[in-house]
Design goal:
heterodimer, A: 630 residues, mainly alpha, two-stranded antiparallel ribbon, 1% strand, B: mainly alpha, Four Helix Bundle (Hemerythrin (Met), subunit A)
């Protein structure tokens, strides 16, 4: 096992010749069925979408900070959407809508799960590829089409959807309500159907691969926490995304076929619409039945990634491996019975509100378990501050500071005050926005050598981290105070309302912080794309990690391992084990090779192994006693 | 020591891969069930809050189509038995019968819709419960279309010179999926009957 060839290119060729047709540019880079290439496709598409979403956010931050100022350059780029250099109200709404949609779905769902589930599930479990590589390829191309359709709405006359990322009817259901509810909304819905199809194909593939294609010895309780997180995320997706499709289909019928699923008693101008009997609240139920699990779909992979990175770079076993898994399972289960906390102000029965409040607050328990376990892992660790580690620690920081405000918002009584204010914006941008982005960036820095065979520049990584970390807090922390003062989100001009005017200076500050944060991303983008071609060549196992992906050759090959797939003998967190020669023992090393560091519980009650270990220890003791006597 | 993956290994690998692929079909069914669950829960909440359901006597054609679908499932079950007994001819014939019955089912569903339309229960309706009849039966029909594709795949498999594992795999996928959409329709039909 330990003699797996690293440099034998002939071996690589023969593998390809036997197993696959000759690879052309088209099959290797475009319609690839190799999970590693698909992961890279997801990542790069996700990064491009993230940059677009970030630019959109800078545009509306400009409007928020200087509502009366004219920026002629905006008119150059945006034409009539920014006549006289000022962003129009309709377009402002389109900006926040598409920013939210892209970030939540395209970057933090597809970009995050799509990249790391694809890359790591086969590599960390010891599989040659996904259960269905074809479905995997299809999943990427559906995602790509969804991106293209979503972006195409910027090139139509009426502009993109502008009903907010939750697209509540009736605003979204009536094409004439605002300009964004016309063709832009139709494109949004089509894009989302394709996106959900992509997510389902991906998720079904991930779950199937995890359950059926683990290598020998890799039982569920030897899986790295990354895999547990991806696995449970995929389950969440399979169980919740179809409900969004159900809701979206009804919305499409309401918009284009004259049904009344969500519409009732509507007067447009002087015209009474014929629709009757529907209920817009039902959209909220269907949407948030997906929408709430969705926020865990966003954060759980990031939590899994940071578990792995924190353990590796603290050179310590993860604290509470089983507790980490049970808390993920707890979050997964609870996430299905909390959606009502988004709807406390819809006239919900207070008793029902109370139920949703309790289930919501219970989620604080598994979340806190995870947080304390991260801190306990860091505690007295031999910490290596790689850029990935910094981002993982950054995730923990955001998860705490954003999670605390979740406890405020989960209370029905408090939420009635805070609902739809900047307090909510601050809360979710910290706990799921920044935390998940930091998890994703940590993953990129950590697995970059695995993806591209090269290292990223550490110095640029540190610059990127510190600027982003500080900017993110400077952007989102002040928003809490706006929210406590009752400033509603999505309002176009703070100058229009007297009680909001005093917050204009804060908005200027936040916008400057956002601009600095955005500029910091240039360091990342340069580092990322430059290192693909010019980075230092990556060693086999740059971080001294235990998991299987670092045993596969740096040079990618379809099938991952040139020979037999490695067998797994131990859990993935044997770092700094007392008595071991090195401070890490890969999962592929059998206990028979590490007699000096084996612990009684390593054998899981296997009497024969325990006997052999005891015999070895007695022998060692005898030998030691003998040398002493001599 | 260098191992190479030879053709034998890869073939074994491909065969082992059939079981996960079957699992994919099961997971697809789960997500599909949840989608219909979304619609039927919409229906329940809607009718509970408005105090009304679709309020129709469902067309008799739905009874006939249900019967046709049940018979088709029976045919498919017998086809699976024929495959186990090694009787390819019977299997092929029964698969064709299933396919024809499936298409007949689709025809009956569409006729049922035209009966509904004729009685004034249009799709675009101020009673969302009536629109929902079209939504669930329509999306079920899409599943029937997918099921017909799986059946064709299995039928083609009986003509092609492929390994018996692959033939069995195609048959099993078609069977799992077809029985699922059969049960799904019964659920939807009974649901609509009970919540009128």
């Amino acid at each position: 096992m330990s003699t797996i060839s690293l440099h034998d290119t002939h071996n690589h060729d023969s593998h390809d010749d036997h197993g696959h047709h000759k690879e052309t540019f088209l099959t290797k880079y475009i319609f690839s069925q190799d999970h590693k290439m698909i992961a890279k496709q997801f990542l790069i598409t996700g990064i491009i979408m993230a940059v677009i979403a970030m630019c959109l956010s800078i545009l509306f931050r400009l409007q928020l900070a200087w509502p009366d100022k004219s920026f002629p350059i905006l008119e150059t780029f945006l034409g009539k959407w920014a006549e006289g250099g000022r962003i129009k109200p309709d377009f402002y709404l389109a900006l926040v809508t598409i920013h939210g949609t892209i970030m939540v779905f395209f970057v933090l769902t597809a970009g995050l799960s799509g990249t790391f589930s694809n890359l790591l599930i086969p590599l960390q479990l010891g599989a040659r590829d996904m259960a269905s590589p074809f479905l995997n390829m299809l999943s990427y191309w559906f995602f790509f089409s969804a991106c293209v359709i979503m972006m195409s709405s910027f090139f139509i006359q009426t502009g993109p959807a502008s009903a907010g990322w939750t697209v509540y009817p009736p605003l979204s259901a009536l094409p004439t309500a605002i300009s964004g509810s016309g063709l832009g909304m139709t494109l949004w819905l089509i894009s989302m159907v394709l996106f959900v199809a992509s997510s389902l194909m991906g998720g079904i593939n991930y779950v199937t691969t995890v359950l059926n294609m683990r290598t020998k010895g890799m039982d569920l309780w030897k899986m790295p926490l990354t895999i547990w997180a991806f696995f449970l995320t995929a389950i969440l997706g399979i169980l919740s995304f179809p409900v969004l499709v159900a809701g979206v289909v009804l919305l499409i019928f309401d918009r284009s076929f004259g049904t009344s699923f969500y519409l009732s008693d509507i007067v447009m101008g002087t015209q009474v619409l014929p629709n009757e009997g529907g209920s817009p609240i039902l959209w909220q139920h269907l949407f948030w039945f997906l929408g709430h699990p969705e926020v865990y779909i966003v954060i759980m992979p990031a939590l899994g990634i940071s578990s792995e990175i924190i353990s590796i770079n603290s050179r310590k076993p993860i604290f509470g491996y089983h507790a980490m898994i049970y808390s993920l399972i707890g979050i997964t289960t609870l996430s299905f019975i909390v959606w009502g906390h988004h709807m406390f102000v819809t006239g919900m029965n207070p008793l029902l509100g109370g139920v949703f409040m309790i289930t919501t607050l219970i989620i604080a328990v598994p979340s806190a378990v995870k947080t304390f376990n991260y801190l306990a892992t860091l505690w007295r660790g031999n910490i290596k501050f790689t850029p990935a580690m910094l981002f993982a620690i950054g995730l923990v920081s955001f998860f705490i500071s954003g999670g605390l405000t979740g406890i405020f918002l989960g209370n029905a009584a408090l939420d009635i005050n805070l609902h739809d204010t900047y307090f909510v914006v601050a809360h979710f941008h910290l706990v799921m926005g920044s935390a998940a982005i930091f998890g994703m960036l940590a993953g990129v820095y950590h697995w970059y050598p695995r993806m591209f065979g090269r290292m990223m520049n550490n110095k640029l990584g540190y610059l990127h981290f510190w600027l982003t970390f500080i900017a993110a807090y400077l952007v989102f922390f002040p928003l809490h105070f706006l929210g406590l003062d009752g400033v509603p989100r999505r309002y176009y001009a703070f100058t229009e309302f007297e009680f909001m005017q005093k917050w204009l200076t804060v908005n200027v500050f936040v916008t400057w912080a956002a601009i600095i944060g955005a500029l910091a991303q240039v360091a990342f983008l340069w580092n990322f794309f430059y290192s693909i071609f010019k980075g230092k060549r990556a060693p086999q196992n740059p971080w001294g990690a235990n998991t299987l992906e670092w045993t596969a050759p740096v040079e990618h090959l379809h099938g991952n391992w040139p020979g037999e797939i490695p067998t797994v003998y131990r859990w993935p967190y044997d770092y700094s084990k007392p008595g071991a020669e090195e401070d890490f023992i890969p999962q592929t090393v059998p206990f028979s090779q590490t007699m000096s560091s084996n612990m009684p519980h390593d054998f899981e009650g296997n009497a024969e192994s325990e006997r052999i270990q005891r015999a070895w220890e007695e022998q060692e003791e005898a030998a030691a006693a003998k040398t002493k006597l001599d | 020591m260098v191992h190479t993956l030879n053709k034998q290994d890869l073939n074994n690998h491909a065969q082992e891969n059939l079981k996960p692929k079957k699992f994919i079909v099961w997971l697809f069914m789960v997500s599909s069930m949840i989608m219909f669950g979304g619609w039927t829960s919409y229906y329940i909440v809607f009718s509970a809050s408005k105090g009304k359901g679709h309020g129709l006597v469902l067309p008799d054609l739905f009874i006939y189509s249900t019967a046709v679908l049940l018979v088709s499932s029976l045919c498919l079950f017998l086809a699976s038995r024929a495959l186990k007994a090694g009787n390819t001819g019977a299997q092929r014939g029964l698969l064709w019968a299933t396919l024809v019955l499936g298409i007949l089912f689709g025809y009956l569903q569409v006729s049922a819709w035209s009966t509904l339309v004729a009685t004034g229960a249009f799709f675009s309706n101020n009673n969302a419960a009536i629109s929902m009849i079209y939504v669930v039966s329509g999306f079920h029909l899409l599943h029937i279309f997918a099921g017909v594709c799986f059946l064709l795949n299995a039928i083609v498999g009986t003509y092609l010179n492929i390994s018996s594992e692959r033939r069995k795999f195609r048959m099993e996928v078609a069977a799992i999926f077809w029985h699922f959409i059969d049960i799904l329709w019964i659920y939807l039909y009974v649901f609509l009957l009970l919540n009128s």
